[in-house]
Amino acid sequence: MGPILSIIVYLIAAAIVLLVVSRLNLGLSVAGFMPAIIAAAVIAIVSGIVAWLLGLFGITLGGAGILAAIIAIIVAAVVLMVSDKFVPGMKVAGFSGAIIAAIAIGVVGWILNWLLGLFGIAPVV
Predict the structure, then answer these.
(1) Adjacent-strand bridge partners of 29
(2) Cα dihedral sign for 91, 108, 5, 77?
């Protein structure tokens, strides 16, 4: 798959994940599909910047174990809270809502990757 098509597939899959989590009422709400796509793009950009900044200090989120998972969830929650400020139509219900939404996004994303893997499609989220 070409890089442009990969980005489009990623954004659509991430938007679907955001919409599913939004419908579960777990601390994140998205007004519709277009705000979900915009939110997915903003979250990807903010996540990239945060990962880059952490990398400058020698901190990586690729480790295994419970501590790495906790750090990744906290970083994801902060990314959601920052993205909330830039995306009209997306609301995060405080830090606890962001933590719950980050966990839900991780779980729904994992399920989506698993389902795509069953059909031989490379994971995108």
Answers:
(1) 91
(2) positive
- How far apart CA 15 and CA 1 sit, in angstroms, is 20
pTM for the complete prediction? 0.74
User: Given a cut of 60, is residue 117 above it in pLDDT?
Assistant: yes
Total Cβ atoms within 10 A of residue 125: 20
3-state secondary structure the chain: CCHHHHHHHHHHHHHHHHHHHHHCCCCEEECCHHHHHHHHHHHHHHHHHHHHHHHHCCCCCCCCCHHHHHHHHHHHHHHHHHHHHHCCCEEECHHHHHHHHHHHHHHHHHHHHHHHHHCCCCCCC
Q: Would you state the structure tokens that stand for residue 23, as one six-digit string? A: 């419908």
